[in-house]
Amino acid sequence: MERLPKHIAIIMDGNGRWAKEQGQDRLFGHYHGVISVRKVVEAATEIGIQYLTLYAFSTENWDRPQEEVKGLMTLFVDTIAKEVPDLHKNNIKLHFIGNLNMLPNEAQDALANAMEITAQNTGLTLVIALSYSSRWELVEATKSIAQKVLDGSLDIAHITEAVISENLTTRAFPDPELMIRTSGECRISNFLLYQLAYAELYFTDTLWPAFGKEDLIKAVSEYQSRERRFGKTSEQIHTN
């Protein structure tokens, strides 16, 4: 328990394939994916994870069939309305990152309300990446930094890694130490590219709707078995 990652990020992949295996449409998989979200949030809270970021919908996902996108938006709004009371009761703070202006007004209102209700909570911070793309985030951060240089509030010589981090959507959170991707795909898929620079990557063949508490524990145990050197040698790590 002393070597838990503070921040876990998860690419929740495989809802469509799981639904196909059940002989159902993709939205059936997304609905059951919500159940896995609930299980993983409960498990993360139980073992003492401080931050959990879930990749729910990328900017590229807008190109999916419109029926699926519309169903997903409805699912987001309905799920938030149902889950926020329990999340609030369990002291969980909700935060959303991404190009949220692309979401329907009803969805934007639901997100804003959820963040307001849970803003003072001090337990697990649950970050949902919606309409998110890391390249989009980096472009926006670059624009923000460039504007500060133009305004004279920032000197080019003072642009550091810290300055870049301060202009990302995740500036309020530490970088993830562990990134999990389900469904057997071994890609980061435009997710937290800057923040995952030194994260441990964990890939599992388990499809997201089948992922539960035991799977999260297994991933954390694997993380704990690895030696994190950050460019140093093993001897340096053990000496320090």
Provide keyphrases for this structure.
240 residues, globular, alpha/beta, Undecaprenyl pyrophosphate synthetase, 6-stranded parallel β-sheet
Structure write-up:
The structure is a single chain. By secondary structure, this protein is α/β, with parallel strands linked by helices. The protein has a single domain (7-133, 177-223), classed as 3-Layer(aba) Sandwich (Undecaprenyl pyrophosphate synthetase). Helices cover 46% and strands 14% of the residues. It contains 8 helices and 6 strands, in the order βααβαβαβααββαα. The protein has a 6-stranded parallel beta sheet with strand order 3-4-2-1-5-6, sandwiched between helices. Helix 2 runs parallel beside helix 3 (66-89).
Produce the secondary structure layout:
Layout: E1 7-11, H1 15-21, H2 26-47, E2 51-58, H3 66-89, E3 93-97, H4 105-118, E4 125-132, H5 134-151, H6 161-166, E5 178-181, E6 200-203, H7 213-225, H8 234-239
Parallel strand pairs: 1-2, 1-5, 2-4, 3-4, 5-6
Helix pairs in contact: 1-2, 2-3, 3-4
